[in-house]
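Severity: low
Component: inverse-folding endpoint
Summary: output formatting inconsistent between runs
Steps to reproduce: submit the following structure tokens with default settings.
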């Protein structure tokens, strides 16, 4: 029996605009297994959040699902009615939004915002809903939950507000938790605590997580598998170790090389150029105009996925047998070498 609980196959989503049809997601496929964390990583505008909204059934009114399917619980989520989504959204699939301040009602007390979810989804009475809400607040690390229950969002810090958003997302005991850039609006130290909290909740509740971010560094200790997305397509997919230690796509190289590195004084690399206009998607590799190693074929024909292992695939012509051999940026190849040496030293230290 398969342990896949959610699967997207060749999903394509566009938006009608005055300028034309924006092809935001262009035929992506991925799956989520029970108890694992799958990350979708890419720049703003790459199609990450649109993918999440398609799964949750909250696409904008001008959105069109051009093709493909999202399979969950024996249903294709691209074809079900809004009434059916009410049984899934917030109940079987929870969502943590990017900005906790806009996710919470600023004029409603925190306790009421949590109990409202419990009363609607679990059909609890007021007393039981309050008791459960206090348990959830304590579970996500809110100190003095009885006092905090009656406070408003503006009385909480950014990190505390995000903890409340997490409490609301898990209130109905969902099977899947979608985290849409949940740490973007937070400072670095708070980010680490929120990521630790999400990991702990995943383990204690046996959740499956889809983690959306523009920062590969955020998912280094979070994800089991990583999908790198660019211009509406997944361009590389693999396990966390494969993406960080054996990246193969030039866009993945660029993302990894732009991550801060405390062990080097070298200047961080930036990705030149801008993403393509998705009203007019480029005919070949969408990353070709920003790729210093692009070949003629990159501008003419879209690359297929080349298999590097049973779990690792990348869509780049540089992996073609006849392509010239190109090295990843030195700044990141040196970092990989340091990571491998640190791992080897740790194994030596731990061995008897």
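Observed output (run 2 of 3):
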């Amino acid at each position: 029996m398969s342990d896949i609980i959610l699967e997207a196959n060749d999903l394509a989503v566009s938006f009608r605009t005055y300028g034309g049809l924006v092809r935001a997601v262009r035929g992506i496929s991925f799956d989520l297994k029970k108890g694992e964390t799958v990350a979708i990583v890419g720049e703003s505008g790459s199609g990450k959040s649109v993918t999440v909204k398609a799964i949750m059934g909250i696409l904008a009114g001008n959105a069109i699902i051009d093709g493909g399917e999202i399979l969950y619980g024996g249903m294709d989520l691209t074809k079900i009615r809004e009434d059916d989504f009410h049984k899934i959204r917030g109940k079987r699939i929870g969502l943590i939004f990017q900005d906790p301040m806009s996710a919470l009602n600023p004029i409603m007390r925190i306790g009421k915002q949590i109990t409202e979810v419990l009363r609607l989804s679990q059909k609890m009475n007021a007393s039981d809903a309050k008791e459960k809400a206090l348990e959830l607040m304590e579970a996500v690390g809110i100190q003095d939950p009885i006092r905090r229950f009656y406070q408003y969002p503006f009385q909480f810090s950014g990190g505390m507000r995000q903890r409340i958003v997490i409490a609301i997302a898990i209130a109905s005991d969902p099977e899947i938790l979608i985290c849409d850039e949940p740490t973007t609006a937070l400072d670095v130290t708070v980010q680490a605590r929120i990521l630790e909290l999400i990991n702990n909740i995943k383990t204690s509740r046996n959740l499956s997580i889809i983690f959306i971010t523009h920062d590969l560094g955020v998912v280094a200790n979070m994800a089991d598998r990583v999908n790198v997305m660019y211009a509406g397509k997944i361009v590389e997919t693999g396990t966390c170790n494969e993406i960080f230690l054996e990246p193969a796509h030039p866009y993945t190289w660029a993302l990894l090389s732009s991550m801060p590195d405390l062990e080097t004084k070298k200047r961080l690399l930036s990705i030149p150029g801008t993403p393509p206009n998705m009203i007019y998607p480029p005919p070949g590799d969408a990353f070709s105009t920003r790729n210093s190693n692009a070949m003629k074929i990159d501008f003419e024909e879209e690359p297929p996925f080349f298999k590097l292992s049973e779990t690792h695939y990348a869509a780049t012509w540089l992996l073609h047998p006849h392509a010239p051999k190109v090295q990843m940026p030195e700044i990141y190849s040196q970092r990989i070498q340091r990571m491998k040496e640190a791992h080897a030293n740790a194994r030596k230290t731990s061995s008897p």
